[in-house]
Amino acid sequence: MTDLEHQVFTQVRAIISNEEQVIGRRGILIPLKKAIIADGDIRNVIDIVSSDPALAAHMLWRSQSAAFVSGNTSKNRSLKDALVRLGQVNIYRYAFTFYLKERLDELPQPYKKLVFGYWALTESIAADAVDSLHQMEGVDINPDEVQTLALFSVFGEIIALTAFAYLNAESEESFPLSIIKTLIDNQKQTLTIEAFESLGLDEELKDEFMIAHNLRQTRDPNSPGLVLRRVLSMRNQLLKPL
């Protein structure tokens, strides 16, 4: 690693550790996390989600897309139905990715285009993973757990590129894009794991992500990570190839 690459690597990691800077809309996510951790009345969660109509609509769409692809053709007719079916952990994961995507909309070019490329890849992987689950027999895996996990498939790349965009916006000197591309290629695993540790995501998501990327093994046949691993392997996206 060159001195300049090391300098950028250090600064990007510092930005990644700042949850508010990376995600932005903490006004919903913070009380939502508190309500979920408290494991209290689902009505509190419903009230928080419904306070942002865009997030509420997103939850309905996500719930119906995973249920439909998995063979469940019944529609959730209300936000309450959708959130009860999703479960509180999936609710937070969906909300997190929703606000992350919203944050990405604010990025300048060329970062916005590059990150959206990763985001399109993520959505495609998620669709393939849920479809793959639907074709499996003898497993008891929640399709929303597969979908929410898959939405973090290239999480490290997205967060690192976003942090680099913020770094260049705040620096007196502009660092060439080739530096972050090199760092993503060579330090992807470190950046990804630090992003998970810094951004307050649940431990189960991190554990299944490690399984999905072949960084950890499991004998659990109902692991969402194993479903995703097959898709990531076929797309050559594993952090640790098989």
User: Can you tell me the CATH class?
Assistant: Mainly Alpha
Helix and strand string, N-terminal first? HHHHHHHHHHHHH
Distance between the termini: 26 Å
| Mean pLDDT level | 89
Basic shape: globular
Protein name: HDOD domain-containing protein
Domain HDOD: 22-215
InterPro entries: HDOD, RNase_Y/CdgJ
Short description:
With 242 residues, the chain is mostly helical. It has 13 helices and no strands.
Topology record:
Layout: H1 3-16, H2 19-23, H3 26-38, H4 42-50, H5 53-69, H6 79-86, H7 88-104, H8 111-134, H9 143-150, H10 155-170, H11 177-198, H12 203-212, H13 224-234
Protein architecture, described:
This protein has helices at residues 3-16, 19-23, 26-38, 42-50, 53-69, 79-86, 88-104, 111-134, 143-150, 155-170, 177-198, 203-212, 224-234. It is mainly alpha-helical and 242 residues long. It has a single domain, classed as Hypothetical protein af1432 (Orthogonal Bundle), CATH 1.10.3210.10. Helix 3 packs antiparallel against helix 7 (88-104). It is globular and about 55 Å long. It starts with a helix and ends in an 8-residue tail after the last helix. The model has no long low-confidence stretch (mean pLDDT 89).
Keywords:
242 residues; mainly alpha; Hypothetical protein af1432; globular
